Structures are given as C-alpha cells and as structure tokens.
C-alpha cells in the first residue's frame, strides 16, 4: 500500500491572526520555540539574554539567562552614571558565579528538549505504525480471501465469543431473577 503524501510544513502568511483560539495556540507554540532558541543561543555562545513577552490574554512570560532580573539590573546600571567600580566588580563576580551554574542548567535543558523532540517523533512514528498495522489484520479481510487455517481460527474465535456471550446473558438472567428488577 503506497503512503499518502502528507501536508508537511506549510509556509504561513505573516499577518495578525484574527481567530482568538488560534491566536492563543500559535502564541504558546511560538513562545516555547523562541525560549528554546534563546536557551540554545545562551548555551552555544555564552551570551546573556532577557526576553519578556505579554500574551494575548495579558499574562507575562519571561526567559532570562542567568535570570531576567540580573540582566535588567545590569542594563539599567550601565545607563546610570552614578555606578561605583567596586559595586560593579562585586556584581560581575556574582554574575560570573550564576553564569557558571546556569550555563550547565541550560545545557541540560537543551539536551532534555532534544530528547523530548526525539521521543515525540518516535511516538508519532509508533502511532503511524499502529494505524498502518490496524488496517492490515487478516481477519478484517473479506472472508473469501482467507485461507483454511485463518478460517478455522476465525471459526474458533467466533465459537468462543458465542460461549462468552451466552454465559454473560445467563448471569444477567440469574441476576434479574434474584433481584426481580
């Protein structure tokens, strides 16, 4: 049986989405994607990033490496002419310590996200295999296409099913007679 060609990835027109439900779904997927890319950029290049996003529902989401607050503080302090060199040095030491541990966590996150993506693809593949195999069971074939062995198996299975149904019906009858319902 030939595999049907799928839709695959389609190029979408970049314009504001008008349907509220679609807007929220797209926002969630794209937010996850941009945070993942930011994490990868931090891990690969050792950069510091802060991203703050407000959802269509006015909820705030943020991603920061090492964290959003320290990057915003650093950004604001660079624009403040009253900074002392001693305070800046201690701030840099604290940030360097944070960066070391956060880089390791970002690396772990990137690896876990990669593994998650692999598992999702594996699950999709297994689901496709399951769907394909369900349509290929021999007992679903027209009866005139079954061989002798398959016909005997089908007959035995139907006899077992008949016994089971008869047994269940008898139990229900006894139960009905006991309770008089």
UniProtKB/TrEMBL annotation:
Q: Does the keyword DNA-binding apply?
A: yes
Domain of life according to the entry: Eukaryota
What is its subcellular localisation? Nucleus
Entries under Pfam families matching the protein:
SRF-TF
Q: Which InterPro entries match?
A: MEF2-like_N (IPR033896), TF_MADSbox (IPR002100), TF_MADSbox_sf (IPR036879)
Annotated protein name in UniProt: MADS-box domain-containing protein
SUPFAM superfamilies per UniProt: SRF-like (SSF55455)
Q: Name one GO cellular component term.
A: nucleus
GO MF terms on file? DNA-binding transcription factor activity, RNA polymerase II-specific; protein dimerization activity; RNA polymerase II cis-regulatory region sequence-specific DNA binding
Which parts of the sequence belong to the MADS-box domain? 7-67
Concerning CDD domains, the annotation shows:
MADS_MEF2_like
Write out the entry's keywords from A to Z.
Answer: DNA-binding, Nucleus, Transcription, Transcription regulation
Q: Which SMART domains match?
A: MADS
Per the UniProt entry, what are the Gene Ontology biological process annotations, in alphabetical order? positive regulation of transcription by RNA polymerase II
Q: Which organism is it from?
A: Anisodus tanguticus
Keyword DNA-binding on entry: yes
